[in-house]
Design a protein that fits this description.
heterodimer; A: 256 residues; alpha/beta; four-stranded antiparallel beta sheet; B: 215 residues; mainly alpha; MetI-like fold; flat
């Protein structure tokens, strides 16, 4: 009899820059296939928390555990490098500003990491690129360069690039915040598709409608703590905490 | 202006121009090697390497190249470094331009957006793989033009070795003034030959820059 352990577990996450505490003892678990949205005002620590999950912004205290393995182990430099690179291969990340590699074609953006880290090559790599790009509706742009794509297209390629490593978990850091309004939908559709395929996702977002429609659970963060969490119907429609209410009210006014 | 004289003596300058070209190529190659090492040192994780590279850059950029040459050529024998004038010229100027190239290369590397490195690291690439596959290919494209500026300066800088009597263009012009008493014509020939070399190299740099430019 093994006890059921959570897929992603964040234990007492704490981060400070000097005397400034950005994350104050946050604990959180995410089940396999679950989709969690993190919302909150800027400076609330939501991006920092997300970026701590793959140790891009290392915590100053606490543990991140993915599928039973601690991500942010403290190890000697070389061993840490090896360990974190293995962990990161299992965690896809999508950035606000896409961060596609401008010197590589769309195809090579998708296949660079699998070629280097999984030893695939030639036809196999081409097949992988085609599959992943078809999945996000970007197959016809396979031989373009990032500079030749719109923001929405870039972000779809960035998602394909992350998925090409076959991650267990996907992190989205305000994936649509830098997009023109008319380009948001195409990226949201790709994310919805991933949700339907039961990809485990943690999504930092400003888009409440999107969060409400795809997420299983919403976390509202403010000043380094999780103020409130629950299903979207609860957090958005009927929040308990005043801070949540105020944030949602301001947000609604702002988007009018 | 004595054009007939210029036409008569210019073939002797071509040989000197060839020496200038050799000096330029050798000093630039040495400079690139020093630049790579210097930039690696400046960007190293280890404080000692950073310190050595910073000291190198500040010495060679902070003192006149002519003093560096004199120090090596005239002062060298005193501390057991025996070099002929050409060798001293190549080493002195090469190490000097390497300090400028260090800063050019370092500047290009650190100008690559941090998001690029993050994207690569989150895919699971190591620091070294990230440097090789993401940072360096982008930085090298950015380096072409500024290295072209360094190279341009270096070709003109080879004139300094006339002061330690290497028989290159500037020295040759001075020598022919001694026999012709026509400084305007002699320096004009030398100037035109420098211009031809520099224009050709400038075109090459532009060509390379176009070739590597991203769509």
């Amino acid at each position: 009899m093994t006890e059921k352990t959570p897929f992603v577990e964040i234990r007492h996450a704490q981060k400070s820059y000097g005397s400034l505490e950005v994350l104050k003892d946050i604990s959180l678990t995410v089940e396999r296939g679950e989709i969690v949205a993190i919302i909150g005002p800027s400076g609330s620590g939501k991006s920092t928390l997300l970026r701590a999950i793959n140790d891009l912004d290392p915590l100053t205290g606490g543990e991140i555990i993915l599928d039973g393995v601690q991500v942010n182990k403290s190890l000697p430099h070389r061993q840490y490098e090896k360990h974190i690179n293995e962990m990161r291969q299992q965690i896809g990340m999508v950035f606000q500003h896409f961060n596609l590699f401008p010197h590589l074609s769309v195809r090579d953006n998708v296949t660079m990491a699998p070629k280097l880290l999984k030893g695939i090559s030639g036809k196999e790599a081409d097949k992988l690129a085609e599959e992943q790009l078809a999945h996000v509706g970007m197959l016809e742009r396979i031989d373009y360069y990032p500079s030749q794509l719109s923001g929405g297209q870039k972000q779809r390629v960035a998602i394909a690039r992350a998925l090409a490593m076959q991650p267990k978990l996907m992190l989205f850091d305000e994936a649509t915040s830098a997009l023109d309004p008319e380009l948001v939908e195409e990226v949201n559709l790709v994310m919805k598709k991933l949700a339907e395929e039961h990809m485990t996702m943690i999504i930092v977002t400003h888009e409440m409608d999107f969060a409400a429609s795809v997420c299983d659970r919403v976390l509202f963060m403010d000043q380094g703590v999780v103020v409130e969490e629950g299903p979207p119907s609860k957090v958005f429609k009927n929040p308990d905490k005043d801070r949540t209410k105020e944030f949602l009210r301001k947000h609604l006014e702002g988007s009018k | 202006m004595d054009i007939d004289l210029m036409l008569r003596v210019y073939p002797y300058f071509l040989e000197a121009a060839w020496v200038t070209i050799q000096l330029s190529v050798l000093t630039i190659l040495l400079g690139l090697a020093c630049g790579i090492l210097g930039a690696a040192g400046r960007l190293s994780r280890f404080a000692l390497f950073r310190f050595i590279a910073a000291a190198y850059v500040s010495f060679f950029r902070g003192t006149p190249a002519l003093i560096q040459l004199f120090l090596l050529y005239f002062g060298g024998p005193q501390v057991g470094i025996q070099l002929d004038a050409f060798e001293a010229g190549v080493i002195g100027l090469g190490v000097n331009i390497g300090a400028y190239m260090t800063e050019t290369m370092r500047g290009a590397i650190i100008s690559i957006d941090k998001g690029q490195i993050e994207a690569s690291r989150t895919l699971g690439l190591s620091r070294f793989e990230t440097f090789r596959k993401v940072t360096l290919p982008q930085a090298m494209r950015l380096m072409v033009r500024p290295l072209g500026v360094n190279i341009n300066a270096q070709i003109k800088g080879t004139a300094l070795v006339a002061a330690i009597s290497v028989v290159e263009l500037t020295y040759t012009a001075q020598r022919y003034i001694g026999s012709t008493y026509k400084p305007f014509e002699m320096f004009l020939i030398a100037g035109i030959l420098y211009l031809i070399i520099i224009t050709a190299v400038g075109k090459l740099v532009t060509f390379i820059d176009r070739r590597v430019r991203l769509p």
